[in-house]
Design goal:
Length: about 100
């Protein structure tokens, strides 16, 4: 497994636009370095996208989050395991959506 160091405020670039948004999933410290998968909500058998939960050093606190840049606008399922959905979130073009585990 690749060890990712922390990221700092201003070091993550998100490409958002007309039909493209981004998603930040906030997790607890116990999820540090775990992978969180997402998939289009209307296609549960579609290939999943995953990102690692990393330490994010913000101006006033430390957070743990997975970041998904450049997502097509639409509703996504967040998976807490291979068969267990943790919830859904709407990603809107030109915006950054958030979800808390």
């Amino acid at each position: 497994m690749h060890e990712f160091g922390p990221s700092f405020a201003g070091t993550v670039v998100l490409d958002v636009g007309a039909d493209t948004g981004a998603l930040v999933i906030f997790a607890g410290r116990e999820e540090h370095l775990s992978e969180i998968e997402i998939s289009p909500a209307d296609a549960p058998d579609a290939p999943r996208t995953h990102a690692a939960v990393r330490e994010r050093r913000l101006t006033d606190r430390i957070a743990y989050a997975a970041v998904y840049a450049g997502l097509a606008q639409g509703r996504y399922t967040i998976w807490s395991g291979p068969l267990t959905p943790a919830g859904t979130v709407m990603v809107t073009g030109g915006k950054i959506s958030e979800f808390r585990l």
